[in-house]
Amino acid sequence: MRSSAHLLFSNQSQTVVWAPFFSRSNDCGTMLIKTRLGDAQKFVRLTEPNLKEFLIAAFAKFGVPAVTEGVKVVDSSGTELDEDVFEDVVKDPSAGVLTIKYETEFVSMVGSPEPSEPPSRGSSDSQDTLILSESPPAKQQRLDTEAKHLVETILNNKPGGERIMKEYNRSKCLTDETRRKMVNILAADITEKNGTSPPREVKEMYARGIVSLFPYLRDPFSRTGYEHYYDGASGTGYLAWRIKTIQRSTARDRRSSYGASPEETSGERGLGGPAARRESQFVPETVLSEDECKEAIALMKHLADEDIIKKKMKLTFDFRRNMILDPEQSSNVLSVFPRFKDIKGLVEQDFVLMFGEDVSGKFLEKWTTTFKRKIIQQCRKLPSTSELEDLLQAADTPEDVTEVDDDIGWDSDLSSILLLLHLIPPSALGRKRPGKVSASQAEKHLVVFKKTGTNIEEHLDAITTSTQPYLLAVGRRKKVAHQFFIILDKNAIACRSTSSLGAFDELFKAHYVFATTYNPMLCNMFTFIQTTVYNIDVGTVKETPRVAEIRARLLH
Of 548, 523, 551, whose CA–CA distance to 375 is shortest? Predict the structure, then answer.
């Protein structure tokens, strides 16, 4: 079959003819209906033998949006099947061929067979066939309505579905537990009706139905808004993952010796991100030759004037970017440009040259006004742990209230950032070590605290492996840390900011300035910051469904 937005009508009867042959399955009280659409023939599983469910199931099986109004079903004698007699008729082995008739010129997404050769002159089909099309807005609205009705019907008829609807109507969102229940219900319905390998169109219909029924779950940054439930391009999303789990479970039941899990793919990255080659916003007034760049680099190592050093760093920006993006030279960048380590603000300057002032200022502008309060609210709905409660207390302490446990936690701003790590936890790293990592464990790869007086060189000497950038906070207590360093490959880069929020802003930017990938344990959180706060590589970088789900919650 060819997938096309056309419906073939007969000028005489305006009918679409299906050739169903019925058989029964005694398993779980279901009925298997052998259905033919065009040249394709498939079994349609029906759990409730009623007219509406048959139409929905049949259209879904063939990847065609369901139409339940403006149509009628007749048997081979031309007698119409009403809802009250449908069950009796289809249980009759002599039901014969059913024909679905459209009562008006209704246009539907029905795939038409690909003709193997042009129709002959004498063919009546060439005279009696009219192809109607549908405008994109009308088509979009119809698909949304049909998908919404499908999901709503399933939830209303499945145990636990009504509770899901009530929770959304009350709070305009779903908790993680409720979202998992909804996905399980819908994935089970998909596999019951379509087997464990359902067509892409069916999964897309259910995903579309979720965000049509629950609009506050729609991701405002994605193309369709429902990619976090099912993304047909990559085959990912909550529905896809649940169906894969069902597939594995079914396979284990059939073959007990089969237990291999899919190969680890966490190392795959989408386009974009810190290590991507990109066009910078900076256009230098003077372009230095290679010899002039080397002369400026040598001069900077001995200069004391910070303003001159910053000007020279601007002039050598393109030279430095090419070096950083060259795998053979990138590890030497801090040896060639050592002033990153002692001249504060050079990381910020290079980031501005790459993206411009507007992008550079987004995090500090948006965090406290747009995200912080909502993240705290969302984290209060997570399962309680001692670490989470400590962060919530620290993040939500009013400024005019005397703080307790002052020696234990971080300040309010950094605590809210660490709460985001609990809200968007690390993805499982497969069977390779360290495997499943908690948010509290991942925190140690984001920020480390040392008391005032600590010898920074001793801290660097104690590092035994190359690591992605992290923050080293120095102070009398965590809450009043006043000095921050970005630690990168046993080098300490002094932060210009003395606040934890400003230091985190510089840490994020260091990934781009030095083209270093995110730590795998922090990748989900940093990707959220990248796309949702800084709006970098929106639509091109690979995101987990959890990132898109939390964005939908926080931006609605």
Answer: 551
Nearest to 429 by CA among 441, 412, 446: 441
Alpha-carbon torsion (361, 327, 486, 292), positive or negative: negative
Give the pLDDT of residue 245. Answer: 84
Could you tell me how far CA 303 lies from the centroid of its own chain? 47
DSSP, res 231: B
C-alpha distances out from residue 507 to 50, 112, 347, 468, 487, Å: 60, 55, 9, 10, 9
Q: What kind and span of H or E run contains 129? A: strand 129-132
Q: Give the closest residue to 337 by CA, choosing from 316, 307, 354.
A: 316
Which among 319, 320, 311 is positioned nearest to 343, based on CA atoms?
A: 311
- Nearest CA to 184 out of 143, 243, 229, 226 is that of 243
Q: CA 312 to CA 306: how far, in whole Å?
A: 10
**What integer best gives the mean pLDDT of the chain?**
80
Cross-strand bridge partners of residue 180: none
The pLDDT of residue 379 is above 90: yes
C-alpha dihedral sign at 66, 76, 31, 195: negative
pLDDT at 312: 93
Q: Residue 389: CB partners within 8 Å, gap ≥ 6?
A: none
- Quote the pLDDT of residue 154: 94
Rounded Cα distance, 396 and 411, in Å: 10
Token pair for residue 211?
A: 């965000």
Under 8 Å between Cβ of 14 and 101 = yes
Quick one: CA dihedral 232, 240, 380, 391, positive or negative? negative
The count of other CB atoms within 10 Å of the CB of residue 489 is 16
Q: What is the pLDDT of residue 546?
A: 93
CA dist 187 and 209 (Å) reads: 13
- Residues in CB range of 189: below 8 A, 6 or more apart: 154, 158, 206
Closest residue by Cα to residue 320 from 357, 347, 360: 347
**500-539 burial string, b = 16+ CB within 10 Å, else e?**
bbbbbbbbbbbbbbbbbebbbbbbbbbbbbbbbbbebbee
User: Is beta strand 40-46 parallel, antiparallel or unpaired with respect to 31-37?
Assistant: antiparallel
Which pLDDT belongs to residue 281? 75
Among 447, 451, 450, 505, which Cα is nearest to 471's? 447
Per-state percent for the chain, helix, strand, coil, to nearest 5: 45, 15, 40
14-28, 32-46, 136-150, 335-349: which range is least confident on average?
14-28
What's the pLDDT tens digit per position in 60-71? 776 666 666 666
pLDDT at 233: 87
Do 556 and 216 touch, CB atoms closer than 8 A?
A: yes
Q: Does the predicted TM-score (pTM) go above 0.85? A: no
